[in-house]
Amino acid sequence: MHCDQCQESVKGTGCFVRGVCGKDELTAKLQDVLIYAAEGIALCSEGFEGKIDRKYGQFISECLFVTVTNTNFDDVAIVEQINKALAMRDEVRALAGTTPEHDAASWSGSTREEFLAKALTCGIDSLSEDADLRSLKSLILYGIKGLAAYTDHAAVLGYTDDDIYTFYVKGLSALTKELPADELLGLVLETGATAVKAMALLDKANTETYGNPEITTVKTGVGTRPGILISGHDLRDMEDLLKQTEGTGVDVYTHCEMLPAHYYPAFKKYDHFVGNYGNSWWAQDREFESFNGPILMTTNCIVPVRESYRNRMFTTGMAGWPGLKHIPARPEGGSKDFSEIIELAKTCQAPTEIENGEIVGGFAHTQVIALADKVVDAVKSGAIKRFVVMAGCDGRHASRQYYTDVAEALPQDTVILTAGCAKYRYNKLALGDIGGIPRVLDAGQCNDSYSLAVIAMKLQEVFGLENINDLPISYDIAWYEQKAVTVLLALLYLGVKGIRLGPTLPEFLTPNIAAAIVEKFDLKPIGTVEADVEAMMLGN
Ligand code: FS2
Ligand code: SF4
């Protein structure tokens, strides 16, 4: 195996023996083959000038999502997905009536052993013999993986954008070709453009289905009834679970990236939707233990499952862990069946309390724009000197303490704009407010970083500025997995310059490619807390 797609890959080289995330060699290889099979569908779709049927586009989203860090570790499910992908590729090839010359368009296999043999020639090392070209292709692949996850969430709610699927054909086919660096660099930017489309699509899907997020206070304590803990990013699963648990005597709690579900009007009507339990993904093993009741993982991030809660943890959607019960897809027009989880919950103890406080959030673009007058006045009066976007991911490493320290060190006249699980580094600190505007404005999940871009563009319009970089906004982004790569490429595409990225720059960027991106976008690695806070306050 060779995997280098996340920030926690083994320093300098990537994971070769076993992932720091818990992914073993066989799973990593099968995921490589799944990507290769998706590339085959894309290649065969070139025969239709890239106009891929939605059915295939949606299926490619799912294949890519399965391979996003911490999503699916279940070899049986991945083998099944590869077989489906090969069948779809053959279907598309037959419809096109031609067979592209590349092996991805024609190889065959059906067993786990055949796929593992195939993996020897189709991992990331096969993208190119040239390290810089391989680096650019990796950036495209990881960006597409992240946007595929967002596109999949939107599709679950019935929202699609054919341009995104068309880009899958172009972007994934490109990975099988020898292309010059400038062409690949162009595709990196196109990945950013498509990332914006995917995040805008998901924003529309979420808000048209569940309403616009509103300022909300979420409790972090527990009640006395048994509960179900739901984690991941899938709001449709949230909806099904809330409906099915109503009146059952079972409460529902969010974990990690599901916290923002509390901000949506459609979910506020449920009295048994009690609060948020715990912190970001990497602390889940301890927190799942003390939760006492069933846990439903709707997407990433799953960490290696402990015996103590294995028999009460469930996956659904693209998520998977070997041996855990997987709740099947909903039938056309219907709902998922969570009855087994609910029945199990009734037999469990109430969660053990691990804290008892509040988190305030719900500052997606409509809510912030509704407060625009107040915000603009505060900027004009000097009450707010600067906004610092600290969106992105959280992770295990102690170096992420940097983000807590920055939040604490920022002057009282700054406001932090956040989204994603990065927020858990500072969303429970008592940072106060500025004239009633909280100093941490949480827009939602990592995909809601789109909201932060919309807010920036709105402020640019209100202040009549030519350039988005003239706003009093600094960017201090934390990344971990491929959705954060997507968010970063989206921000770069929107013209945002001077972003700080940490805790480290991606290892899959070679020194040459990193230098090119740093120069073009003024991207910079994080430094010390003191130096970065000082520089940001000076607009650097
Ligand atoms: Fe956090 Fe994990 Fe949201 Fe990422 S829960 S790092 O996959 O998607 O952000
Ligand atoms: Fe390593 Fe990250 Fe890949 Fe897991 S996802 S194998 S930790 S690089």
UniProtKB/TrEMBL annotation:
Cofactor binding comment, as recorded: Binds 1 hybrid [4Fe-2O-2S] cluster. Binds 1 [4Fe-4S] cluster.
Positions in coiled-coil regions: none
GO MF annotation list: 4 iron, 4 sulfur cluster binding; hydroxylamine reductase activity; metal ion binding; peroxidase activity
Chain positions with Cysteine persulfide modification: 393
Catalysis performed (reactions): A + NH4(+) + H2O = hydroxylamine + AH2 + H(+)
GO BP terms, alphabetized: response to hydrogen peroxide
Chain sites annotated for binding hybrid [4Fe-2O-2S] cluster: 233, 257, 301, 393, 421, 446, 481, 483
Gene3D superfamilies: 1.20.1270.20, 3.40.50.2030
Residues the record lists as binding [4Fe-4S] cluster: 3, 6, 15, 21
Pfam families given in the database record: Prismane
Source organism superkingdom: Bacteria
CC annotations in GO: cytoplasm
Keywords assigned: 4Fe-4S, Cytoplasm, Iron, Iron-sulfur, Metal-binding, Oxidoreductase
Entry's localization field: Cytoplasm
Cofactor(s) of this protein: hybrid [4Fe-2O-2S] cluster; [4Fe-4S] cluster
Catalytic EC class: oxidoreductase
Matching SUPFAM superfamilies: Prismane protein-like
E.C. number(s) listed in UniProt: 1.7.99.1
Entries under HAMAP family matching the protein: Hydroxylam_reduct
General function of this protein: Catalyzes the reduction of hydroxylamine to form NH(3) and H(2)O.
Similarity remark: Belongs to the HCP family.
Protein name (Swiss-Prot/TrEMBL): Hydroxylamine reductase
Source organism of the structure: Chlorobaculum thiosulfatiphilum (Chlorobium limicola f.sp. thiosulfatophilum)
Source organism phylogeny: Bacteria, Pseudomonadati, Chlorobiota, Chlorobiia, Chlorobiales
Name of the gene this protein is made from: hcp
